[in-house]
Design brief:
By secondary structure, the protein is of the alpha+beta class. The chain has a single domain, classed as Roll (C8orf32 fold), CATH 3.10.620.30. The protein is built from 9 helices and 6 strands, in the order ααβαβαβαβββαααα.
Length: about 230
């Protein structure tokens, strides 16, 4: 195992005292349960949004972050407890984001974008442990609880194009190139956050209709049957 997957970086601040304290609060008697505790914390206590690249400590303090920022925090918490972790980059269809973005933002994006998630090393395998979408934003029928042995991405496989690779540190130039149309406009980021908060607040029946409208009934039915594992 390369030591780079345990080492701090400018974004993965696993040696920061606040990060260490948070990681210790989430630790358990088993590595698997610790990984799951960190996953649930980053998934649900850190709201998903789209924003600029930020270090892990800023994500922890602000309680919000884009996929790459949530991954930075998750990796930092894991490495703070000597659990090897790294980034995985996937190219995905922008259609996966359609329910989550205002139309005027969605229209700015290319046909595909990059998605970033955490990989954790357990029992001789690298496993995806994607904590991007907080539970209030998820499709109500979306089963997304990570378990030991599961390789999980929060992007439904129907929207995936390819895996680009795994990295010990975030390849910032790739991320910026993928999302520049949004990341360079502060007003759009504020509009996205407003849209996401409105989606979180929808009653169950309205949220179901929202996903069906933007993903289509065939996709929603397919995902519901498969549990989106």
């Amino acid at each position: 195992m390369e030591t780079t997957y345990l080492a701090p970086t400018l974004l993965v601040q696993s040696d920061n005292p606040e990060i260490i304290r948070c990681a210790k609060r989430l630790s358990s008697s088993s590595i698997e349960q610790t990984v799951k505790n960190i996953y649930l914390f980053v998934r649900d206590e850190i709201k998903w949004t789209i924003d600029r690249i930020k270090p892990a400590i800023e994500v922890l303090r602000s309680r919000k972050g884009a996929c790459f920022n949530k991954a930075s925090l998750q990796i930092a918490l894991l490495r703070a407890l000597d659990i090897p972790a790294r980034y995985r980059l996937e190219e995905v269809s922008t259609k996966a984001l359609k329910p989550y973005l205002p139309q005027e933002v969605y229209d700015l994006l290319p046909k595909t974008v990059l998605h970033t998630l955490t990989e954790v090393y357990l029992e001789g395998r690298w496993l995806g442990c994607d904590a991007t979408i907080d539970s209030q934003l998820s499709h109500p029928l979306w089963k997304r609880d990570w378990e030991p042995g599961m390789d999980m991405s929060c992007i439904p496989s129907i929207f995936k194009v390819k895996v680009l690779g795994s990295y010990h540190d975030l390849p910032r130039s790739l991320i910026s190139e993928s999302m520049n149309a949004v990341l360079l406009r502060e007003a759009l980021i504020l509009r996205i956050e407003e849209h996401l908060d409105n989606l979180r607040a929808l009653p169950l029946d309205e949220k179901l209709r929202h996903f069906e409208q933007y993903w289509g009934s065939d996709v929603v039915s397919y995902l519901a049957k498969r549990g989106i594992r």
